Amino acid sequence: MLLLFATASFAQSRYALSFSDYMDGKFTALENLTIESRSKSKRFWNGGADFKPETGNKETDKLLKKDVKYIIHQDTLYVNCRQLRYQGCKFGSWYAPGFRFGTGRICFISTKIGKEQTSEAVTAGILFGAIGGAIVASKQLKNKACYLIESDDKEVKLITKNNMRTILLNYPEYSQEYNALPEKEKESAAVIIEFLVKTNLLMRY
Questions:
Q1: Which Pfam families does this entry report, sorted A to Z (predicted)?
Q2: How far apart are the first and last CA of the chain?
């Protein structure tokens, strides 16, 4: 499955220090930025946030790690997961891919976490998955979920099947299709992204 988003193209990499700065379009330009997809072993030990930004400048790289909240690079949004929590559980130390959701929220994709998922993951030894930028392959999102950021608060929300049912009430042609899916698939990132794209609720950034 290939998901493409229509958007203007900006060559300049840039970052925002807060949710409000991001929503207000207050960005600072970045030079010489590269974003590395971390190895599965590193994700296992450090959490499921998959992407590490680097510029080669020590002070800038420290800023990106600890203070920057959002990066836009090559038409892709990356969300710093370092301080984010779901049910008190951490996502990891680096960045996850995201999208603007509607006019005032951010959706990002990361490893399933939370009390139930953490217990299962430790037992099964599964703490990682794979995803690349704005191209989303459904089989790669098997162990991923979608989360919502609505403010500068560190606690984020999981997009649940009940949330999706509510969202799709305004889209009856997709609501019936979604409700027909197996229950275990309804909260997977692959399914959620697919339907949010169909409803035109997601933008790259």
A1: DUF6563
A2: 20
Q: Classify residue 172: in a domain, yes or no.
A: no
Length of the chain: 205
Residue 161: its H or E element: helix 161-167
Cα–Cα distance, 54 to 37 (Å, whole number): 11
Tokens of 160: 């649940």
Domain that holds residue 129: 13-159
CB atoms < 10 A from the CB of 166, how many? 11
35, two tokens: 């974003």
Amino acid symbol at 89: C
What Cα–Cα distance (Å) separates residue 139 from each residue in 21, 68, 128, 191?
34, 30, 13, 11
3-state helix, strand, coil in the chain (%, to 5): 30, 30, 40
Say how many domains are in the chain.
1
Per-residue pLDDT of the chain (205 residues; tens, 9 = 90+): 334 444 444 558 999 999 999 999 999 999 999 998 865 544 433 445 689 999 999 999 999 999 999 999 998 999 999 999 999 998 888 999 999 999 899 999 998 887 655 444 443 333 333 333 333 444 445 678 999 999 999 999 999 999 999 999 999 999 999 999 999 899 999 999 999 999 999 998 8
Residue 198 domain-assigned?
Answer: no
